[in-house]
Amino acid sequence: MDRPGFTASLVAGGVAGVSVDLILFPLDTIKTRLQSPQGFYKAGGFYGVYAGVPSTAIGSFPNAAAFFVTYEYVKWILHTDSSSYLMPVTHMLAASVGEVVACLIRVPSEVVKQRAQVSASSGTFHIFSNILCQEGIQGLYRGYKSTVLREALWSWRQDHVVDSWQSAVCGAFAGGFAAAVTTPLDVAKTRIMLAKAGSSTASGNVLSALHAVWRTQGLSGLFAGVFPRMAAISLGGFIFLGVYDQTRSFLLELGRESP
């Protein structure tokens, strides 16, 4: 990838990610509390819906930037002709690799954020320190496999670059559908990240976590938080892809005008 394109993807992805995460954070908190094992109201209900936002604010830009830079770079390496029938496969592979890389940043931020969301009285730094003291670095990566699986499946909705309004509308509809389908994986990820250290759920086994939810709460438990998740990702798809395309186009145009 050329340097202007690389820089534009980096900045545009970061700006779009921060915008979405901060604007829609209350919906994410409500979703997490609905999925938590202690139940919505015991986890905080509608109180303190911005608990954990510092973790998101810190991790959002590098996470989003890492995804889109990797996504663009892998597409550039594969360099499939736009008319080729392999183009969708190229986008799917690029998006999946992008999620694997981005999750190296996303998962630690997500672990701290979710624990803060269900313990609004505890500060973000306090939670971060406790995880390091009690579980070490591996504690920050609890739920990595379930997060990568969830995000890789969701990221396959990526399509070719079109006008920003088309990207935004398509992103909203595709994101809402993908959010509903992958909700059980999101529930498993939440349970794994919130589980007490040393418990069977904390081991990170996705199937085991799903089975435990099914056994105790049935189908409703597997789809806990589906509506705020769909709302957040639909709106997020609209905002993210629209802001990304617009910002990247603006930066590339600015680069061409610069001497």
Automatic annotation (TrEMBL):
Pfam families: Mito_carr. Its main location: mitochondrion. Keywords: Membrane, Mitochondrion, Mitochondrion inner membrane, Repeat, Transmembrane, Transmembrane helix, Transport. One of its GO terms (cellular component) is mitochondrial inner membrane. The chain crosses the membrane at residues 6-27, 47-69, 89-107, 222-244. It is a multi-pass membrane protein. InterPro entries: MCP_dom_sf, MCP_transmembrane. It catalyses: S-adenosyl-L-homocysteine(out) + S-adenosyl-L-methionine(in) = S-adenosyl-L-homocysteine(in) + S-adenosyl-L-methionine(out). Solcar repeats lie at residues 4-77, 162-250. It comes from the Eukaryota. Belongs to the mitochondrial carrier (TC 2.A.29) family. PANTHER family: S-ADENOSYLMETHIONINE MITOCHONDRIAL CARRIER PROTEIN. Mitochondrial S-adenosyl-L-methionine/S-adenosyl-L-homocysteine antiporter. Mediates the exchange of cytosolic S-adenosyl-L-methionine, the predominant methyl-group donor for macromolecule methylation processes, for mitochondrial S-adenosylhomocysteine(SAH), a by-product of methylation reactions. This is Mitochondrial S-adenosylmethionine carrier protein. It comes from Bison bison bison (North American plains bison). The lineage of its organism: Eukaryota, Metazoa, Chordata, Craniata, Vertebrata.
